[in-house]
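Help needed: design a sequence for this.
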């Protein structure tokens, strides 16, 4: 078959409303060289006809930058959570199966509510609290070796893929997940962010924190940005142990 007549098949798990049942719907999309999953979904949006030739509603999904920076277009593609903007059709087994991430509540079709992840970031204060009402001048400089690995941690785009891959993040667990833990390491390493270091460590030692990690290492294998998540988890385990000893023996003792 020539490329002019070639089609690809997408089997999409759909859900009309957050409280409705899910169902599968198949679509045939004209093939184009170098097309990704997003472009295939856009083709369906332009012409919402399913594989049976029946008119249907356009598929709903989230997207933003289309260059693996915003993290919005995460979904499960052929059984693996990933970014749909960088999932090339030519590299995927046919038919292509698209599902919403199961860790988060489904809003509609492939779009999910990632509030659980953002609430975890709030819990660990994954930011530097400066009010910005007056000029503080230039901040302290970071050592070059620290800056380099901190930059790797800063690549997190809150896509939720690591939470979807983690077996310990589920409806029966309060585990905050690897993304939030890695962000604690990032902001605690910052010369200004370390002002709230103890507060963040206390959050990791609380309910849903580091103790819930089962060390499956699925997160680091699935992260689209290659962030060393398990290294961060190990580093934060060490930091919380030191912090607990300091709390036990008193702040005047060095560990």
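Sure. Designed sequence:
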């Amino acid at each position: 078959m020539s490329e002019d007549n070639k089609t690809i098949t997408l089997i999409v798990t759909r859900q009309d409303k957050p409280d409705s049942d899910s169902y599968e719907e198949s679509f045939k999309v004209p093939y184009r060289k170098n097309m990704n999953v997003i472009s295939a979904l856009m083709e369906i949006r332009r012409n919402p006809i399913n594989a049976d030739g029946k008119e249907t509603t356009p598929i709903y999904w989230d997207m933003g930058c289309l260059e693996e920076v915003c993290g919005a277009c995460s979904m499960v593609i052929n059984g693996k959570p990933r970014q749909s903007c960088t999932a090339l059709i030519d590299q995927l087994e046919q038919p292509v199966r698209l599902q919403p991430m199961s860790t988060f509540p489904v809003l509609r079709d492939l779009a999910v509510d990632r509030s659980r992840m953002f609430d975890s970031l709030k819990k660990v204060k994954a930011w530097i609290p400066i009010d910005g009402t007056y000029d503080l001048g230039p901040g302290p400089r970071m050592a070059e070796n620290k800056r380099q690995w901190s930059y790797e941690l800063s690549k997190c785009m809150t896509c939720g893929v690591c939470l979807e891959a983690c077996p310990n993040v589920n409806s029966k667990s309060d585990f905050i997940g690897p993304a939030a833990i890695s962000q604690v390491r990032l902001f605690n390493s910052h010369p200004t962010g370390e002002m709230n270091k103890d507060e963040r460590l206390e959050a990791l030692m609380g309910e849903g924190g580091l103790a819930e990690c089962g060390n499956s290492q699925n997160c680091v294998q699935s992260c689209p940005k290659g962030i060393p998540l398990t290294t961060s988890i190990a580093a934060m385990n060490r930091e919380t142990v030191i912090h607990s000893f300091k709390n036990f023996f008193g702040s005047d003792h060095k560990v």
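The chain is about 30% helix and 15% strand.
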